[in-house]
Specification:
Helix content: 40-55%
Radius of gyration: 17 Å
Shape: globular
Number of strands: 0
Largest sheet: none
Mean pLDDT: 83
Order of helices and strands: HHHHHH
Distance between the termini: 23 Å
Structural class: mainly alpha
Length: about 140
């Protein structure tokens, strides 16, 4: 079994945060009031381009080593079904070849990324729970 350069705890934290991001929707209240209570809190799930969850995910991924970022992309692709655990070296090599400074944007642009990361982690025999609120360093 190959080893991951990134911990299951970090992946679990990202799964949780990316699920928070996944529930965002387009603007549903264009005539927003000045106070959230005025809007019955309808704006809380809107993706307005200045999302603190996106900033948190991006900052967290950008602080990772290159090897952790490469494994994260390869893990997403594993969970997406682009290969099997036996093909991990190939998935990782492909992720390394395409590695750049936009890993966070790439992953956030992938629909179902949190599910893919969870599936990839499962292929390694690792589990995560959604009870975490902070990453384990």
């Amino acid at each position: 079994m190959p080893e991951l350069a990134i911990s299951a705890e970090k992946i679990g934290f990202l799964i949780e945060k990316m699920r928070e991001f996944d529930v965002k929707e387009g603007v549903s209240d264009p005539d927003s009031g000045s106070n959230s209570a005025d809007d019955n809190m309808i704006d809380v799930l809107e993706d307005n381009g200045d999302d603190p969850v996106v900033r948190e995910i991006t900052g967290f991924i950008n602080a990772m080593t290159d090897d952790e970022q490469i494994d994260l992309v390869a893990l997403m692709r594993l969970g997406r079904g682009d290969g099997t655990i036996e093909e991990w070296d190939d998935l990782r090599r492909e992720a390394a070849e395409g590695h750049n400074k936009r890993t966070a944007s790439y992953l956030l642009g992938e629909p179902l990324v949190s599910d893919y990361l969870a599936e990839g982690l499962d292929a390694f025999g690792e589990t995560w729970t959604d009870e975490r609120t902070t990453p384990v360093q």
